[in-house]
Design brief:
Elements lengths: L3 E5 L11 H9 L4 E8 L5 E3 L20 H4 L20 H8 L5 E6 L7 H13 L6 E5 L2 H10 L4 E6 L6 H7 L4 E4 L6 H9 L3 E5 L4 H10 L3 E4 L2 H13 L2
Parallel strand pairs: 1-2, 1-9, 2-4, 4-5, 5-6, 6-7, 7-8, 8-9
Antiparallel strand pairs: 2-3
Helix pairs in contact: 4-5, 6-7, 8-9
Length: 246
């Protein structure tokens, strides 16, 4: 098993995060998968954006949940790259699915329900996955583990992962108890005893946010299933070299 390379919000070190440009450039860079974040607009549209506020990544201000899709897409989501790559809109999940539906790309959909639960979004995301026949090509993850449990009830066939930045004791049995297939931790928290317990239980490990070469190599040696990073092209090169020398 080779460690998979996921572009974090696309190719976010070089292009505006969570935009179609960033996703397309990640695919061109040779990723195995893309990690992205979804939220719900005021008029119940699923959009791809990380923060609950648009302030950091766009030229606007306000909460995603308080704005309509039209209002959100009137903004430039180019963030720190403003003026370099033209105007980049906040994409909808449907727009993204149209792009990847025929590509051999795994999509790690992070449900951004940590501050606002967006409960209607859970079924909306699932229905869209089914409509595009992507059930075998998605991983649903969230820091809000209740979101995952609710989705498992009506969509048990999907793959799920618990995101965490905490030091959870006996995390392997916690994951096993709730029947998730993946553990998505901050890679700094993946201490040897956690790694062993989770792997011994047959649960996949996808780490974030892995950017340095030494960390990529260490995690590949440890046999983690996926690494999520901001430099997908460099990661692809590092992994290719690592496996060619094994």
């Amino acid at each position: 098993m080779k460690t998979k390379n996921y572009g974090h919000r696309g190719y976010s070190s070089k292009y505006p995060e969570n935009t179609m440009l960033s996703f397309k450039k990640a695919v061109e860079a040779g990723v195995d998968g893309i990690e992205l974040d979804v939220q719900l607009t005021k008029d119940n549209q699923v959009v791809i954006i990380h923060d609950e506020l648009v302030d950091r990544t766009t030229n606007g201000k306000g909460k995603v949940k308080d704005m309509t899709l039209s209002e959100l897409q009137s903004l430039d989501a180019s963030s720190v790259f403003a003026g370099k790559y033209g105007i980049n809109k906040i994409p909808t999940l449907e727009e993204y699915f149209e792009y990847v539906k025929d590509l051999p790309i795994i999509t790690n959909i992070e449900m951004k329900t940590g501050k606002y639960e967006y409960k209607p979004m859970e079924k909306m995301v699932y229905d869209m996955i089914c409509r595009y026949k992507l059930q075998k090509k998605v991983l649903i993850s969230s820091f809000n583990h209740y979101t995952i449990l609710r989705m498992k009830e009506f969509a048990p066939e999907l793959e799920y992962g618990f995101l965490t930045e905490d030091w959870i004791i006996d995390v392997g049995n916690y994951l096993k108890k709730y029947g998730v297939q993946s553990f998505n931790p901050d890679f700094h928290n993946l201490i040897p005893e956690v790694l062993k317990q989770v792997q011994d239980l047959g649960i996949a490990i996808n780490c974030y946010t892995v950017n340095d070469e030494e960390d990529v190599i260490a995690l590949a040696k440890a046999g983690v299933d996926g690494i999520i990073g901001n430099y997908p092209e460099r990661t692809a090169q590092i992994l290719k070299k690592f496996y060619s020398e094994k």
